[in-house]
Structures are given as C-alpha cells and as structure tokens.
Design a protein that fits this description.
Type 1 dockerin domain, Immunoglobulin-like, 2 domains, 6-stranded mixed β-sheet, 4 helices, 26% helix, 22% strand, elongated
Length: 206
C-alpha cells in the first residue's frame, strides 16, 4: 500500500505558505474600525460579518473582508490576531506645498502638507542639502522657514510620529526666486501666491 503521508505534509506546508504569503503580500493591518488600534472594536465588526460571502469591492463587508477576496473567514481573523493591541504606524505625509520641484518660490513661504493618517505629531526637516537638518517636532501641519536666500534650492521632509513609531516622509524640494538688479520697481519677493493657494487647499482638506 502506497504511503501518502509525505504528500499530506507537503500539502499542509503549501497551505501554510500561501496563508503567510497572502498576509505579507497585502500588508494589511487589521484595523477595521480605523482608530489606529487593533482591538475589540475590530473584532466586533469581524463577528458581525463572520462567514459572509460575496463582499462587494465598494465596502468589503464593512472592511471585515481584510484580504479583499470576497469572503469573511479565518484568514481575516488571522490579520487581526497578528496585530492584536498594536498601535499602527502613521501614514506618510503628502501634498507638499510648495509642490515638489517648484521654482520661483518667494523668500517667505509657508510650507504645508496633508498629514498622514494616525499622526500625533511630526518631525520637520529643512535645509539646503539632501539630508536636511531636524528643525523640531510639532503638532501642526505647516512650517514657516526664516532667512531664506534667493536662487537657492531647499529640501524638506516630514516624518509622522505616534506611539507606534515613526514613518519617514518623502524628500521634497523647491527653489527660491532669483534677485535681479532693479531701478526702484523691484518685484515683491515676500508674496508667495503658491503658498496662499496651498494654504486654501489644506484648509479645505481638514
């Protein structure tokens, strides 16, 4: 009689690998409720939708179908169990203003951005090198640099922080206006229309 035991082991190993791969591939965090914490709130949503099939792409069964395969089952439970009572890392800051690579920025800009999700505070980095220095940590999503030079490229980065850790932001840059000789009708280098427009945009996002 043929021994099928090795084949059974192989099938089991493949199933475990597939489950692990799906968990790593989707990199989903188990925070169904969106409160930046994996806890009983998420478990409650999962239980309400337990074993529901044919979850639609628009809402994935209230988010309980974490792996988004159409069914709420033990795979989704595994996502929650694996992140139980963990504080999730902040989302990355986005929508920089001035925009990345923008030129002719005034010498008195207000830097602003859209904060990443679950962000409690942020470290602001600013300078003239691609490794800008840390200016400090703050809770608001704007920063006003001082004493900028004309015709100079500045680099800046926003790192989001919370109790779960730090998310390093993208490196952004802008270049200031060039001073030119004038006969008394000098351009006003203190007015930054780009920052005005961005400030209005970010106010609308709040």
């Amino acid at each position: 009689m043929k021994n099928n035991f090795p084949s059974a082991i192989l099938v089991s190993l493949i199933a475990v690998i597939i489950l692990c791969f799906s968990t790593c591939l989707f990199a989903l965090n188990g925070d169904i409720s969106g409160d930046a914490f994996v806890d009983f709130n998420d478990m409650e949503i999962l239980s309400i939708n337990w074993l529901v099939s044919n979850c639609s792409e628009s809402e994935w069964c209230d988010g309980a179908d974490i792996d988004q395969n159409g069914d709420v089952n033990f795979v989704d439970f595994a996502f929650i169990a694996g992140k139980w009572e963990q504080v999730l890392l902040p989302g990355q800051a986005s929508d920089p203003c001035p925009g990345d690579g923008v030129t002719n920025v005034s010498l008195t800009p207000t830097l602003s951005w859209t904060a990443g999700s679950n962000t409690d505070s942020r470290d602001v980095y600013f300078g003239t090198t691609t490794n800008p220095e840390l200016i400090g940590n703050q809770t608001n999503a704007n920063y006003v640099p001082v004493a900028l030079s004309a015709n100079t490229t500045y680099y800046w980065r926003i790192d989001g922080k919370n109790a779960g850790g730090t998310t390093i932001g993208a490196l952004w840059s802008f270049r200031t206006v060039s001073r030119v000789p004038c006969d008394g009708n000098c351009p006003d280098l203190t007015v930054d229309l780009n920052s005005v427009v961005c400030a209005q945009f970010h106010r609308l996002q709040r």
